[in-house]
């Protein structure tokens, strides 16, 4: 009985988190939101568990409710190059593979125990076709995602290691509480030693 109560409370909190996320950009009635929920499935991932590995088929994208995910590629020397972190309230997938329906070119792994809500490509397209509000929501989110990617590319091309570090710290301070320094270094494109020096100077 206690377990059932806790499970229902957890489920309600998760669904409210998703609704709050949508309603930052659109307004939904209770009936509309209940319909939207049919398209999502909840999944929990243990620390260091993969959602995707290189070569996997990609059929879903993921909305992070709790925890943190990272997407990365490995070079010919098995060095990790992190493309993105996803904290709660963020979306993540291998979007190139999802859109082109090709095998994944990256890994998607849980940094810490993580809960996500999953939606398939087909269900997202159906939802957007049936509800203009949701089409509008995802169109705006895609635009924000493109802006974020452009900023990251410009930062990597023109910013110093110190500037990249300070920008990341200012924009996403929570990452520094969750993500290991080794992963932060891989994301910033610096060595672990360089990151440690930057960290010490900002204390």
Automatic annotation (TrEMBL):
<dbReference type="InterPro" id="IPR012318">
    <property type="entry name" value="HTH_CRP"/>
</dbReference>
<feature type="domain" description="Cyclic nucleotide-binding">
    <location>
        <begin position="24"/>
        <end position="127"/>
    </location>
</feature>
<keyword id="KW-0804">Transcription</keyword>
<dbReference type="InterPro" id="IPR014710">
    <property type="entry name" value="RmlC-like_jellyroll"/>
</dbReference>
<keyword id="KW-0238">DNA-binding</keyword>
<dbReference type="InterPro" id="IPR000595">
    <property type="entry name" value="cNMP-bd_dom"/>
</dbReference>
<keyword id="KW-0805">Transcription regulation</keyword>
<dbReference type="InterPro" id="IPR018490">
    <property type="entry name" value="cNMP-bd_dom_sf"/>
</dbReference>
<dbReference type="Pfam" id="PF00325">
    <property type="entry name" value="Crp"/>
</dbReference>
<dbReference type="GO" id="GO:0003677">
    <property type="term" value="F:DNA binding"/>
</dbReference>
<protein>
    <submittedName>
        <fullName>CRP-like cAMP-binding protein</fullName>
    </submittedName>
</protein>
<dbReference type="GO" id="GO:0006355">
    <property type="term" value="P:regulation of DNA-templated transcription"/>
</dbReference>
<dbReference type="Pfam" id="PF00027">
    <property type="entry name" value="cNMP_binding"/>
</dbReference>
